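input
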Amino acid sequence: MLRNPRVKYITYYEDSESIRGRRTAVWELDKANHRNIVRSPVLMRELWLQMWHDIHPDAKSKFVTKAKRGPLRDVDCYWDYGKARCAWPEYCEYRYVFGDVHLGQSCRLKTSSADLLLHYI
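output
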């Protein structure tokens, strides 16, 4: 089977022997620059949110993934070319600021990220 060189493949390995009752998951991103992946602000923010939730003593609910909670920062908003509008219309709006080079940079949150973060504690 030949791989398409433009597609990034994800390989999942699971180890259920580490700690009784717990599972360890490792995600392998093929065709990704592994050295610079920790410099990704989105990856580090998601990691920070999950770690913060896990150690927070007052956490009352399970961790909410990005797919369910929507964007938290302006950089999470992007332009949906298929629909000719900003993606996540319930959270993001088109708001041009001088210096925006492409449509995606003009998509910004409707509310502040501090307000949104309080919903997930």
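quick obs: The helical segments are 41-55, 66-69, 113-117.
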